[in-house]
Amino acid sequence: MKIVTYNVNGIKARLERLVEYLAEQQPDVVCLQELKSSDETFPEAAIRDAGYGAVWHGQKGFNGVAVLARGQDPIERQRGLEGEPEDNHSRYLECEVDGLVVASIYLPNGNPRPGPKFDYKLRWIDRLRARAQVLLDAEVPAVLAGDYNVIPNDDDTFSVPAMASDALMQPESRRGYRALVAQGWTDALRSRHPRGGVWTFWDYQAGAWQRDAGFRIDHLLLSPAVADRLQDADVDKAYRGREKASDHAPTWVRLS
């Protein structure tokens, strides 16, 4: 069972690349982020033509998350996180596929910092951690997959000095992410590549892709029952190099 997280950076702009990826890789579940599409303009027909059912939580122009499942419709469990009723950002969508709970997550970027955007990022991590604890307490097999906008370790970036002032790598951001993992989740990509040096994102600016100047911000966290089924985890890096690609590459786990 292959589960993918993929920040598409605009589903309508990248639809050809997404359908191409689904056809070539045939993943079982795909968690999408940064749809930049309202619920009404989500390209459901194209996704269904590719052989996938979908649940989505859109937002016009930015944010937006979705869960796709090959040959079936995911069962929606929850959209959004508790804790801030006034928060209308489309950043969390939780579904069930074949008994597995899968959440698509688009954690706030937090820049510029300091400021309200960074404060919101830290509160959002706390709210995610509260939901994650509920899932662990229920002992359901779960995968929290998405763009976390957190570089967890120094060896998860091409350059520590270049990212030192960025919200993605601040001590508070890292502390929130590590507290989440410490609940009992397994960082799948880290577990398979413990020495780091694996990137999931390359900026469009300054020839980052050509220089391989990337970093790791797309993560798949596995609950204990799912971690026991982990066979492999990696990045389909080549897709970042295709024409009009997203600045993220599909990142995945394979489960028995």
UniProtKB/TrEMBL annotation:
<comment type="similarity">
    <text>Belongs to the DNA repair enzymes AP/ExoA family.</text>
</comment>
<protein>
    <submittedName>
        <fullName>Exodeoxyribonuclease III</fullName>
        <ecNumber>3.1.11.2</ecNumber>
    </submittedName>
</protein>
<dbReference type="InterPro" id="IPR005135">
    <property type="entry name" value="Endo/exonuclease/phosphatase"/>
</dbReference>
<dbReference type="InterPro" id="IPR020847">
    <property type="entry name" value="AP_endonuclease_F1_BS"/>
</dbReference>
<feature type="domain" description="Endonuclease/exonuclease/phosphatase">
    <location>
        <begin position="4"/>
        <end position="248"/>
    </location>
</feature>
<dbReference type="InterPro" id="IPR036691">
    <property type="entry name" value="Endo/exonu/phosph_ase_sf"/>
</dbReference>
<dbReference type="Pfam" id="PF03372">
    <property type="entry name" value="Exo_endo_phos"/>
</dbReference>
<keyword id="KW-0460">Magnesium</keyword>
<keyword id="KW-0479">Metal-binding</keyword>
<dbReference type="InterPro" id="IPR004808">
    <property type="entry name" value="AP_endonuc_1"/>
</dbReference>
<dbReference type="InterPro" id="IPR037493">
    <property type="entry name" value="ExoIII-like"/>
</dbReference>
<dbReference type="GO" id="GO:0008311">
    <property type="term" value="F:double-stranded DNA 3'-5' DNA exonuclease activity"/>
</dbReference>
<keyword id="KW-0378">Hydrolase</keyword>
